């Protein structure tokens, strides 16, 4: 155990050495990492970028995958990394190209008006030190496959500059691929299992882009420049991982596509997609770091709705990465075997806690893994059709954040290198082999389309005005006193469609405590109806976390009205602030595309029809088809022959009020005869109409997202024990935690369909901020009295924006109804909303991998008994009854039939009494 604690103590040294974001970090080596930039140094180092344990390969407690003749002694520095990459390009020109995006401006017309440089680290003289943007491209130029026909992968390295794991692992993964392809092309890239494609095959079939995502945040901490503190943000104090557009809700505190890095990298990657005929990228990963955690690596499935094929590909990649990680990282005593992780030694580091030894890897949605969600991330953008439309993942790797940003701990950094190589190689290996996915529909299935549609349009970039824009303004504020200026309009012969105010604070090495202040732009006049004339806020810098003490800030405003403006006074700004106001002829927060949307929640089910697997037999064809309300009300014949019918969110979609009783009578008779009725979300209210529970027993409310805790009424796990929880207990799958929720899995992404995602609520269930993601639950006592079984529970908060009390109830389960059954899922396919900011449209659904699997289970209507209040044991959910127990199975089926017959009498009596 002591040996396990040594790296932890080393990490503790990192904490002790951090005396604050604005002061020195204690003694730090000023020398660069050993990086080869010439043939002699390459021969000596055995590598362009030696691994942290390169000199320890083969020794106990060291990585068997480490490479190089020496050990790296410090984090990769910006200048030496570029020098090493240029040498690698010169040494292996067939496989490597280091692309300077700024150099492309002269030859690529669509880049001419882009900066293709970073925002720039503020300097003490109030100037900015801007850096060109770079992408490392790895492929085989001599491949017989045309470049446009190769698969494409993109990897964002450390977009949060303080989270070094992405850079440390990503750069070295690129070198592995190049070195193997050049000298050992038959090397299989999944080293721990000696499997996967060979390096030669990978580079012949693929083009791989490694994005050096945040030059400013990286450079501020480089010890070779006397840097003292890496930074999450760019030079404008902006979190670049909130700056990318996406379909669905976008938090309006962010400015998607406004920062120069977001604009530049997005434009370059989108152009690469265009040059390949517009085909989606094959895969992508956004590589991050985090503090201590129960798992060393969290593989994050992105937000947004996706089709079943993409969902299947994503899960397959995550499982490939997991299988590789438990082998690749097993050399470290910090990593426990899957059967005994995480360990029992508590770890408390700065802002997070965990335990040692850790799990190697866990995978799931962002909320399932790290317990919060956000919008505007580059990972979601790379996954989105607005971006690369790839099978996109994210990753968080432990001990690569505040705790290790000042001290280089070789064992931890080797874990970061190995872990990120496994992520990249695992995705490539999984996705180079195409595997069509078929949605399983065991028997004839129908759904009633929801008539509620959400429609709208969104415009692209506004055409430039024929009038000139206002000249830029350079202003200086002293000691937080504020400063005023005029914005002109057509009456002065100008037309400003965008305003950018860039602030540079008094600083030392790009660090300033003035960023602790509020940076707000105000306009004098009346901004909104009912306002009194005076100063009113029109824009503000979102100060996400003051911990990093950035020395710059930025405010963007579209369509600024003419008038008197000011930087609002704030005494927290202690010295001087340089303010530069720039104007543009197009909106500064652009929409990168234009179009329209027309979506409904049952579009998700309709889309599955195209991927439904073929009929299992000619006698029972598999199908997934719409059934109209008019036909059911007419004669109910469309229900004849159906095994399952789905009502999503609306219990009586488009049914006239006068026909509601007939509607539910028709449904009830069909279920009585053996049908499987599936009710999701708001459609759970049909339980009252069918006489299963009292109407008041069904409660709808809000939460942070859609979820079930997969536990029964006693709190015991239902994974593998209830047919509606089948297929979910996969190796490495993460269960969200917090607020007393156990085995909590997210079933739908709220942002994709327009629901609000708070920056502060986290897993607290709306207690810290508003939320409006809809969920519906059934009172547990009423459900038990009706004979229902429980596969999952949920909690909802009542009142506007989830501000009221919380109610816990049954969210997932089934109840016998005559000879049939009714299945419920109270958080799966809610109707999209237009109530919140959604500048790029809405998606029809936000099904997660768990949501898809729950849907598969709901539609599987094969006869099975389940554990319930009467103590009936469950017959195995898959395959025939075991030959060893036909008599027991027969007894169970007879018991179930008798139970259902009693239910027929009770339900029929209830229907007659209505």
Give a verbal description of the structure.
- By secondary structure, the protein is of the alpha+beta class.
- The chain has three domains: 2-24 and 92-431, Zn peptidases (Aminopeptidase, 3-Layer(aba) Sandwich), CATH 3.40.630; 444-453 and 596-877, Rossmann fold, CATH 3.40.50; 473-584, Jelly Rolls.
- The chain contains 18 helices and 35 strands.
- An eight-stranded mixed sheet has the order 1-4-8-5-9-14-10-13. It has a seven-stranded mixed sheet with strand order 26-15-27-28-35-34-33, sandwiched between helices. Strands 17-24-19-22 form a four-stranded antiparallel sheet, with no helix packed on it.
- Strand 27 (644-648), helix 14 (660-672) and strand 28 (676-680) form a beta-alpha-beta unit.
- The chain is globular and about 80 Å long.
- It starts with a helix and ends with a helix.
Distance N terminus to C terminus? 68 Å
Which strand order does the major sheet show?
1-4-8-5-9-14-10-13
Shape: globular
- Return the CATH class of the largest domain: Alpha Beta
Number of domains: 3
How much beta, percentage-wise?
Answer: 15-25%
User: Which fold name fills CATH's third level, the topology of the largest domain?
Assistant: Aminopeptidase
Which class do the helix and strand fractions yield? alpha+beta
Rg over CA atoms, rounded to whole Å, is 29 Å
CATH architecture of the largest domain: 3-Layer(aba) Sandwich
Number of strands: 35
Low-confidence stretches: 1-30, 615-619, 865-914
CATH H-level superfamily title of the largest domain: Zn peptidases
Main β-sheet: number of strands, strand sense, barrel status? Answer: 8 strands, mixed
Specify the helix fraction band: 10-25%
How large is the count of helical segments? 18
Mean pLDDT metric: 87
């Amino acid at each position: 155990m002591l040996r396990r604690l040594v790296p932890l103590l080393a990490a503790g040294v990192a904490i002790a050495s951090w005396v604050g974001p604005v002061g020195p970090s204690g003694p730090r080596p000023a020398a660069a990492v050993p990086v080869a930039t010439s043939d002699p140094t390459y021969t000596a180092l055995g590598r362009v970028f030696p691994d942290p344990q390169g000199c320890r390969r083969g020794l106990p407690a060291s990585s068997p995958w480490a490479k190089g003749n020496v050990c790296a002694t410090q984090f990769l520095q910006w200048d030496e990394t570029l020098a090493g990459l240029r040498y690698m390009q010169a040494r292996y020109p067939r496989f490597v190209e280091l692309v300077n995006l700024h150099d492309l401006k002269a030859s690529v017309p669509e880049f001419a008006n882009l900066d293709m440089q970073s925002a720039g680290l503020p300097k003490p003289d109030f100037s900015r030190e801007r850096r060109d943007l770079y992408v490392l491209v790895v492929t085989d130029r001599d491949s017989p496959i045309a470049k446009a026909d190769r698969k494409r992968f993109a990897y964002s390295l450390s977009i949060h500059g303080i989270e070094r794991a992405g850079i440390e692992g990503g750069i070295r993964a690129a070198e592995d691929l190049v070195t193997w392809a050049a000298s050992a092309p038959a090397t299989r890239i999944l080293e721990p299992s000696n499997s996967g494609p060979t390096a030669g095959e990978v580079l012949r079939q693929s083009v791989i882009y490694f994005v050096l995502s945040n030059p400013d945040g990286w450079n501020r901490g480089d010890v070779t420049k006397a840097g003292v503190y890496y930074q999450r943000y760019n030079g404008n104090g902006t979190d670049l991982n909130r700056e990318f557009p996406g379909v669905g809700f976008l938090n309006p505190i962010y400015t998607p596509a406004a920062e120069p890095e977001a604009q530049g990298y997005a434009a370059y990657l989108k152009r690469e997609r265009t040059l390949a005929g517009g085909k989606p990228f094959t895969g992508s990963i956004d590589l991050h770091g985090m503090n201590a955690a129960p798992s060393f690596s969290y593989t994050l499935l992105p937000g947004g709705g996706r089709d079943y094929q993409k969902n299947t590909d994503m899960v397959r990649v995550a499982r490939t990465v997991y299988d590789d990680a438990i082998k690749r990282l097993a050399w470290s005593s910090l990593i426990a075997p899957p059967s005994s992780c995480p360990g029992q030694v508590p770890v408390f580091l700065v802002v997070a806690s965990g335990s040692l030894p850790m799990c190697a890897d866990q995978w799931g949605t962002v909320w399932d893994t790290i317990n919060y969600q956000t919008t505007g991330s580059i990972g979601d953008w790379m996954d989105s059709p607005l971006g690369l439309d790839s099978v996109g993942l994210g990753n968080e790797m432990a001990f690569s954040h505040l705790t290790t940003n000042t001290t280089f701990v070789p064992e931890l950094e080797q874990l970061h290198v190995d872990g990120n190589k496994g992520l990249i190689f695992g995705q490539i290996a999984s996705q180079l082999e195409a595997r069509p996915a078929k949605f399983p529909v065991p028997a004839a299935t129908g759904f009633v389309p929801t008539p509620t549609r959400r429609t709208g349009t969104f415009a692209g970039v506004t055409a430039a005005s024929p009038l000139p824009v206002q000249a830029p303004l350079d202003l200086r504020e002293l000691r937080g006193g504020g400063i005023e200026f005029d914005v002109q309009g057509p009456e002065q012969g100008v037309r400003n469609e965008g305003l950018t105010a860039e602030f540079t604070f008094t600083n030392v090495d790009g660090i300033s405590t003035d960023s602790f202040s509020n940076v707000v732009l105000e306009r004098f006049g009346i901004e909104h109806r009912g306002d009194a004339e005076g100063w009113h806020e029109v824009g503000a810098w979102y100060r996400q976390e003051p911990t990093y003490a950035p020395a710059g800030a930025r405010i963007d405003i579209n369509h600024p009205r003419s008038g008197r403006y000011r930087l609002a006074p704030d005494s927290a700004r202690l010295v001087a602030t340089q303010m530069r106001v720039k104007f543009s002829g197009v909106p500064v927060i652009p929409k990168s595309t234009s179009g329209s949307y027309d979506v409904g929640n049952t579009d998700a089910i309709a889309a599955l029809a195209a991927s439904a697997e073929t009929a299992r037999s000619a006698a029972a064809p598999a199908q997934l088809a719409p059934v109209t309300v008019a036909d059911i009300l007419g004669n109910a014949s469309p229900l004849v022959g159906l095994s399952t019918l789905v009502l999503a969110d609306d219990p009586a979609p488009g049914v006239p009020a006068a026909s509601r009783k007939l509607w539910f009578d028709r449904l009830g008779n069909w279920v009585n005869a053996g049908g499987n009725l599936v009710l999701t979300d708001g459609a759970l209210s049909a339980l009252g109409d069918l006489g299963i529970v009292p109407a008041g027993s069904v409660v709808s409310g809000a939460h942070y997202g859609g979820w079930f805790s997969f536990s029964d009424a006693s709190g015991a796990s239902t994974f593998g024990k209830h047919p509606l929880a089948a297929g979910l207990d996969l190796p490495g799958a993460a269960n969200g935690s917090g607020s007393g929720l156990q085995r909590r899995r997210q079933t739908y992404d709220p942002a994709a369909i327009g629901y609000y995602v708070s920056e502060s609520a986290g897993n607290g269930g709306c207690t810290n901020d508003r939320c409006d993601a809809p969920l519906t639950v059934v009172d547990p006592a009423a459900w038990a009295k009706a004979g229902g079984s429980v596969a999952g529970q949920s909690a909802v908060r009542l009142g506007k924006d989830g501000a009221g009390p919380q109610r816990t109830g049954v969210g997932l389960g089934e109840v016998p109804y005559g000879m049939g059954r009714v299945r419920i899922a109270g958080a799966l396919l809610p109707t999209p909303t237009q109530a919140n900011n959604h500048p790029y449209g809405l998606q029809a659904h936000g099904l997660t991998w768990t949501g898809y699997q729950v849907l598969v289970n709901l539609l599987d209507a094969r006869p099975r008994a389940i554990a319930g209040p009467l103590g009936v044991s469950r017959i195995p959910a898959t395959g025939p009854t075991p030959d060893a127990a036909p008599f027991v199975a027969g007894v169970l089926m007879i018991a179930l039939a008798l139970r259902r017959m009693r239910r027929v009498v009770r339900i029929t009596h209830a229907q007659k009494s209505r």
